[in-house]
Each structure stands twice: as C-alpha cells, then as structure tokens.
Amino acid sequence: MADVLSQGEIDALLSALSTGEMDADELKKEETQKKIKVYDFKRALRFSKDQIRSLTRIHENYARLLTTQLSAQLRTYVQVAVASVDQLPYDEFIRSVPKMTILNVFEPFPLDGRFVIEVNPNIAYAMLDRMLGGQGEALNKVESLTEIETKILSQLFQRSLETLREAWESVVDLDPVMDEIEVNPQFLQLVSPNETVVVISLSTTIGEASGMMNICLPHVVIESILPKLSIHLWMQQKKKDRQPGELSALEKNLKQAPLDVIVELGQSQISIAEFLQLGENDVIELNQTIDDPLLVKLGNEPKYYSQPGKVKGKLAVQITDSIVKEGESDDE
C-alpha cells in the first residue's frame, strides 16, 4: 500500500513545485521508470495467492475440528488456531524446527509422497501426560521416548489425521496413514532441500502448556490437486445431488421407525393415602364419561380422538377426529 501523505507534506510538496525546487517533469520520469523487483530463485513462489488462501481456509477448519477432538479426548482446555501460512524451501523449514522435536510423518493416500506434522515437545508431552492421567505437564525429554510413549503418541496423532481427512474432504478424499515418528529433523529427508513447501503453523494451547504445530505440505505432493484449490472453482462447487432412490429409501426406513401409541381412558386425582389403600376390585372414578371420546397420543403428543370397541375379540379404538393445533393444517 502506498504511503498516505499528511496535509503538511502535501503543502510542502506544492510549495517546492511552485518555487522551482522540485521539477514536475523529473517526477513524471521517475514514475514511468520500470520498477525492479528482487526475485530469489532459491525461494521460488510456486503457490498462487488463491491457493494459499484456500489452504488457509482448509486448515482453519482443521484447527476448529482438532480443538473439539482434543478437548473431548484429553478432557482439558484446548485451543488451536492458524497462526501463519508460508511457502519456503524445505531446507529452510528443517533448519527452523528445534533440534529435538516430535515429527509425525504420514502418507496422504491417494497422493504420492509424505506430509509431516511437527509438534513442539511441550505440546506433545502435555498430551501424553493427560492421556496417562496426569495434569498435562509439559515435560521435555524427547531424546528418551520409551516404546510405550511412542505407541501412545502414534495412536493420538493417528486420530488427529482422521480430523485432517474431514477438513480436506471438500477438495480431495484423503486417507492419511501414520508412517513413523521421528525426533531428529536432520534424519528426515522428505523431499529435496530446494523443494518448495507450504508450512501451516498452528498456535496450540493444551491446559497450561502452549507451543506450535507445523504442518509441512511439499509442492510436489499436492501438485496434482492444486487446480482444485482455486477459489473460483471452489466457490462454484455445488452440493452433491442425492443418488436415485436415496429419498425413497430414507422414507422407507423412516416408516419402519417404532412409535408409541397411547390411548388415554381418562384421568383422576387421588391422595397418597388413598393410593396406598387400593386393593383388588376397587373402583377409581375418571374425569370423563363413557360417551366422551378417548384421547390418542403419539409419542406423548395428543393427536386424535377415538371411540373404544372390539376387533376379532380384541380391544381396539376407532379414530373419529384429529386434533389440529393452532398454526397447523389438517394435513400435518
């Protein structure tokens, strides 16, 4: 954005032009000169702004879903939010993460290649402590992960991948599978050092612990689905049409749902003392006569009036009228 001049600066500029201290023709020449923009070939920008915005929206949704999932699983305060989305060389990403950290490597089938989610040890150990019944303390002992701790963390992060699949389903049907957990980034050669990757940084709070989770998406892995990340294409995407027969199948299943039908003969009020003294052959007087219609309830909701009778020797009722509430039609 161009700098906005204050009124004093505007007055000084007009004064310089009027006194000849500044030449208007020279100003025009400067404006017409080609502006040179520095481009670093080592930091090739291979993702468009539209694609970056789409990736941001996807992972904002992922952050919301992950917040809900971890809150229910860890039973503590959890807050996950997108802090930044940047594209940079893979080598720069590796050098930016701590020497000892939690690197979750997974394969995003059907895409070829691997993604990685780097989790700050403070966050990872707070999760692990909660899973083991602790208060969620952020212990940092990455270099001495036991086999049991590695297994628990693997299962925990595998569940978070199911949330990632849900966040990506509007673009591609991912089936991410955990490959391995690595603690030293120098041993992780995901792609070539100069390959462009997108790094989505998630600001994460687990109880009293806080840190960052970084999702690394190599360009070469998601290159095949980049056209689907166009905002124009995404906004035009329509909801899936119902499959033929789906509505009729839904109606058929709905008709088979059980529903309680209650025929009310009448009501009466008695005291607790009278209730305790009830015995065989005692008569309870109801609040309506034998000529009054009986109330039929569907799911405890009054719906019809009826008259009692018998069908093939069994007690039955015949519907005589329907109850129409205010604001409803007879067809409802």
Q: Helix count, per DSSP? A: 10
General form: elongated
State the distance separating the first and last CA atoms. 60 Å
Number of beta strands? 10
What would you say about this model in short?
The chain has 332 residues and is α+β, with helices and mostly antiparallel strands. Helix content is 34%, strand content 25%. The two termini are 60 Å apart.
Map the helices and strands:
Layout: H1 7-19, H2 24-32, H3 49-74, E1 78-89, H4 90-96, E2 102-109, E3 115-119, H5 121-131, H6 147-168, E4 175-182, E5 196-206, E6 209-218, H7 219-222, H8 231-236, H9 246-255, E7 261-264, H10 272-276, E8 294-298, E9 301-311, E10 314-322
Antiparallel strand pairs: 1-5, 2-3, 2-4, 3-6, 5-6, 7-8, 8-9, 9-10
Family: Belongs to the FliM family.
Protein name: Flagellar motor switch protein FliM
Subcellular location: Bacterial flagellum basal body; Cell membrane
List keywords for this structure.
single chain, 332 residues, alpha+beta, Chemotaxis protein chec, four-stranded antiparallel β-sheet, 34% helix, Flag_FliM, flagellar rotation, bacterial flagellum
Please explain how this structure is put together.
- The protein has helices at 7-19, 24-32, 49-74, 90-96, 121-131, 147-168, 219-222, 231-236, 246-255, 272-276, and strands at residues 78-89, 102-109, 115-119, 175-182, 196-206, 209-218, 261-264, 294-298, 301-311, 314-322.
- With 332 residues, it is of the alpha+beta class.
- The protein folds into two domains: 43-236, Chemotaxis protein chec (3-Layer(aba) Sandwich); 259-271 and 286-323, Roll (Surface presentation of antigens (SPOA)).
- Strands 1-5-6-3-2-4 form a six-stranded antiparallel β-sheet. Strands 7-8-9-10 form a four-stranded antiparallel β-sheet, with no helix packed on it.
- A hairpin with a 2-residue loop joins strand 8 and strand 9.
- Helix 3 (49-74) packs across helix 6.
- It is elongated, with a radius of gyration of 35 Å.
- Residues 253-322 form the Flagellar motor switch protein FliN-like C-terminal domain.
